[in-house]
Structure to design on (361 residues):
């Protein structure tokens, strides 16, 4: 008899030829639809879709859920949706959105509102492999969801980096909160600028660059100096060429320096209508080659080392459509890892390259 947790799965994520490792049940989990060991045929799939509708859910056991989520038959969008649901990322994103989109946001910026969110975000870092978290972060996001997703992603990255730095639990919490609130001032930027599907004009860019000052104003003394300064200074640079204050070097707190790395990484792997998303390995290359000036090089190198370790021995879909395993990531050429496909082991190049990172295999 099957045991374990039943999870919701859209019927449309099944495919012809899928051999079921476990029973599949209706949306209540009470009616057996397809038994373990059965092969999904076109007629069975059509019957399910006709009876339940394409937007309806069935219930599957966790191992079946993960198998379907990680299979190359599933579209990137399907993998995104299932990963976000499975991890609880989608729920966190919605909760953050309900606060960030509130017309009374200033009144919601309190420990009573933020502490449960920070605890929930921290719980994901403990519960899930970092590669699952990175998979949520690396997925493209709709333009109008950019702020809340970016804030959640930077919170997750900040917490992960703080743990890699072996900081105390209270510091990890502060770094996570700083990531969550670092761009809160963007809620005061006009939406037509914030969500512009193009490069901003110089005038619009100057308006956008006011957001750290707005963040400072919104946060005030509510969450402590470290969180406030990370929000105000995450666009500052060690060489003094950042904004809004032009400060440099030791004037930048450790939390601010870490937040700057998280902020840039997430911005680079995200998708914009005027700038295509980049694979995470290519972004690591950009960091290594110092394409983002004014960052703390020591923190960057630690970030790159840990990211390479996490992506090694992980699955990737190559340009030929087949799945491979990343066996080695050169420190100075992360965009061209050594990949194994069955007996073939070779370095990726411009003709045979990584097309998509896969969350679970």
């Amino acid at each position: 008899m099957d045991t374990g947790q039943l999870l919701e799965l859209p019927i449309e994520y099944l495919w012809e030829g899928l051999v079921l490792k476990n029973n599949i049940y209706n949306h209540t989990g009470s009616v057996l639809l397809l038994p373990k060991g059965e092969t999904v045929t076109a007629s069975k799939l059509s019957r399910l879709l006709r009876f339940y509708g394409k937007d309806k859910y069935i219930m599957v056991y966790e191992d079946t859920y993960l198998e379907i989520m990680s299979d190359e038959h599933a579209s990137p969008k399907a993998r995104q949706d299932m990963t976000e649901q499975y991890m609880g990322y989608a729920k966190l994103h919605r909760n953050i959105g309900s606060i960030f989109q509130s017309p009374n946001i200033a009144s919601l910026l309190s420990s009573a509102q933020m502490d449960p969110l920070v605890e929930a975000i921290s719980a994901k870092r403990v519960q899930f492999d970092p590669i699952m978290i990175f998979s949520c972060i690396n997925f493209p996001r709709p333009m109008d969801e950019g702020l809340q997703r970016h804030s959640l992603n930077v919170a997750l990255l900040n917490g992960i980096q703080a743990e890699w730095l072996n900081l105390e639990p209270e510091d990890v919490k502060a770094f996570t909160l700083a990531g969550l609130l670092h761009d809160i001032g963007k809620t005061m930027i006009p939406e037509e600028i914030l969500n512009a599907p193009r490069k901003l004009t110089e005038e619009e860019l100057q308006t956008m660059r006011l957001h750290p000052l707005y963040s400072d104003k919104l946060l005030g003394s509510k969450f402590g100096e470290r969180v406030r300064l990370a929000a105000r200074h995450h666009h500052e640079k060690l060489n003094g060429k950042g904004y809004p204050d032009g400060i440099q070097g030791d004037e930048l707190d450790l939390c601010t320096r870490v937040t700057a790395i998280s902020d840039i990484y997430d911005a680079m792997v995200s998708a914009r209508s005027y700038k295509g998303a980049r694979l995470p390995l290519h972004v690591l290359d950009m960091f290594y080659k110092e394409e983002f000036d004014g960052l703390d090089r020591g923190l960057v190198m630690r970030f790159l080392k840990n990211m390479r370790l996490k992506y090694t021995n992980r699955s990737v879909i190559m340009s030929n459509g087949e799945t491979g395993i990343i066996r080695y990531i050169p420190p100075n050429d992360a965009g061209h890892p050594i990949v194994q496909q069955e007996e073939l082991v070779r370095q990726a190049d411009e003709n045979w390259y990584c097309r998509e990172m896969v969350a679970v295999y």
Observations:
- The mean pLDDT is 89.
- The chain has 16 helices and nine strands.
